[in-house]
Structure formats: structure tokens, C-alpha cells
Specification:
The protein has 81 residues and is an alpha/beta fold. It has one domain (2-75). Helices cover 48% and strands 15% of the residues. The protein contains four helices and three strands. Helix 3 (40-50) packs antiparallel against helix 4 (59-69).
Length: 81
């Protein structure tokens, strides 16, 4: 199964938040599934950091590190024909 994770989900993974259920975590890390993060999430993180709504040490670079450390893949939204 292919999963597209939203920005909150990636951040919740990073901080091991209880907002993310154990079932969701198992599904995301199940090697039979592919977990993607839209590149637009980095843009959203940058805006939230700039407006003070998100405090992420290391800024957007830290967000990319979170994606890499958790074995997630980047997704460029594109139209398939």
C-alpha cells in the first residue's frame, strides 16, 4: 500500500506523540507499505517556522532529516497519465 503522510504525522513520528496511534505507526513502518511525504510539507514547515507556529531546532533541514531517519520517501505531486 502507498501512504502519503501529512506534515503533522511526520512531526508526530519524530516526537513519538500519542496523537499517532500504534496502529498508524505499525502501518507506516510496515515494510510492505511505501510511506511518502509531499515536498509541499517542507514548504508548510517553513511557513510555520517563520510565523512562529512551529519551533523546530534546525529548521526545514531538520524536517528533511526526520524524513530520512524514519525511512520515508519524498513525493513530488504529479499528474499521472
Amino acid at each position: 500500500m502507498k501512504l502519503l503522510l501529512d506534515t503533522h504525522t511526520v512531526i508526530w513520528l519524530a516526537v513519538n506523540s500519542t496523537e499517532l496511534s500504534e496502529t498508524a505507526k505499525r502501518t507506516i513502518f510496515d515494510l510492505r507499505n511505501e510511506s511518502f511525504v509531499s515536498i509541499v510539507s517542507a514548504w508548510e514547515v517553513a511557513i510555520k517556522i517563520k510565523t512562529g507556529k512551529l519551533h523546530l531546532i534546525g529548521g526545514v533541514a531538520e524536517f528533511f532529516k526526520i524524513i530520512d531517519v524514519n525511512g520515508l520517501e519524498y513525493s513530488l505531486l504529479r499528474k499521472t497519465v
